[in-house]
From TrEMBL:
InterPro entries, A to Z: ADH-like_N, Chloroplast_QOR, ER, GroES-like_sf, NAD(P)-bd_dom_sf
Molecular functions per Gene Ontology: oxidoreductase activity
Protein name, UniProt field: NADP-dependent oxidoreductase
SUPFAM superfamilies: GroES-like, NAD(P)-binding Rossmann-fold domains
Enoyl reductase (ER) domain location: 10-316
Gene3D superfamilies in the cross-refs: Medium-chain alcohol dehydrogenases, catalytic domain, NAD(P)-binding Rossmann-like Domain
């Protein structure tokens, strides 16, 4: 089968012809129709997460996807051949992933029936980013009347954060370069601040404090490194919460400032997917697909995502 894989960490991802996997007990084989690209995919290829991930090579890249159940392994009862499913398909320890014509999933793993009326390319864009957004809003205990800053709001996770924080009744401030300010407001942001204005007098904190002199209640951040989180945390009122998706927050340091710091990790479940399906069905969550590319262009799409400037999700048609 055709798949995008790397021969070793640090190698350039390439289209390869690799064996089609066989579903074992409790597993399903899925004919992939679309896969969603996440920063994790190039981080994995680059070896940036090698200490926390077991992998064999050649290693097929990609986690998120949607497709049709082709074959079920022994003992599978929850899913049937022909059903349309979406979710995550990581199998790095066996060299498997979602950027391939066929992928494996566990029937008790993070896969679910696709939401009614949803097309494959949309469904593939949902799992990792939207689940992270849901987890971050839960972790921050975002509530009506709070003021929340979303840092990295224009990308895959950030767009979900803006919508979910707004849905929870918070006043949302979203980071956005000028071209994305309108989109952020349409997704529910009350205000935008331009993170590309770098100098202190006009930087992120100054722009927020110009409107919110007494500070804000929470920061939901998907991009900042550790020193930047300490800087941005100065915006928080006593008792405020800082949540990071990139493990940049130091909870002890936040506690010493009278704040709460939380790092959110992956770990999608089928229950989370069902929650996301409900939010999508109710039109409370929209996932913007910025770009669709054929499988052979996935290496270029990963390079483009690594370079920055995401304006939504990139989806790979398989
Ligand atoms: N822990 C978890 O479970 C989990 C789950 C999902 C994702 N993540 C991580 O979360 C991060 C974000 O993922 P994603 O899918 O949202 O990425 P993405 O789609 O590539 O989006 C990143 C966005 O951040 C913006 N940005 C970059 N630097 C910024 C800055 N200094 N201030 C404000 N905005 C900035 C980018 O726009 P510009 O370049 O134009 O500024 C882009 O729109 C990744 O590192 C990913 O690995 C973690």
């Amino acid at each position: 089968m055709r798949a995008i894989a790397v021969s070793e960490y640090g190698a350039t991802p390439a289209l390869m012809n690799l064996p089609r996997p066989e579903p074992g007990p409790g597993e399903i084989l899925v004919k992939m129709i679309a896969a969603g690209l996440n920063p994790f995919d190039w981080k994995l290829a680059d070896g940036m997460v090698k200490d926390s991930v077991d992998a064999t090579f050649p290693l097929i890249l990609g986690v998120d996807g949607a497709g049709v159940v082709e074959q079920v392994g022994e003992g599978v009862t929850r899913l049937r051949v022909g059903e349309q499913i979406y979710g995550t398909f990581a199998g790095t320890e066996r060299g498997l992933g979602a950027f391939a014509e066929y992928a494996l999933a566990r029937e008790d793993g993070p896969v679910a029936l696709m939401p009614e009326g949803m097309i494959y390319t949309q469904a593939a864009a949902v799992p990792t980013a939207s689940a992270a957004a849901l987890k971050m809003v839960d972790a921050a205990r975002v509530d009506a009347g709070q003021t929340v800053l979303v840092v990295g709001a224009t990308g895959g996770v950030g767009q979900g954060l803006v919508q979910l924080a707004s849905l929870a009744g918070a006043k949302v401030i979203a980071t956005a370069r000028a071209d994305m300010a309108g989109t952020m407001r349409r997704l529910g942001a009350d205000e935008t601040v331009d993170h590309s204005r770098g100098d202190d007098a006009d930087g992120l904190n100054a722009q927020v404090l110009a409107v919110h002199k007494d500070g804000i209640d929470a920061v939901l951040d998907v991009v900042s490194d550790a020193p930047a989180t300490e800087d941005i945390a100065q915006l928080l009122r006593p008792g405020g919460t800082y949540v990071s998706s990139v493990w940049a927050v130091n909870p002890d340091s936040m506690e010493a400032k009278g704040l709460r710091g939380v790092n959110v990790s992956g770990g999608l479940t089928s229950g989370t997917l069902d929650r996301l399906s409900d939010l999508i069905d109710a039109s409370d969550l929209r996932v913007q697909v910025e770009r669709e590319v054929p499988l052979e262009d996935a290496p270029d799409a990963m390079a483009a995502n690594r370079a920055g400037g995401a304006r939504g999700k990139t989806v790979i048609r398989i």
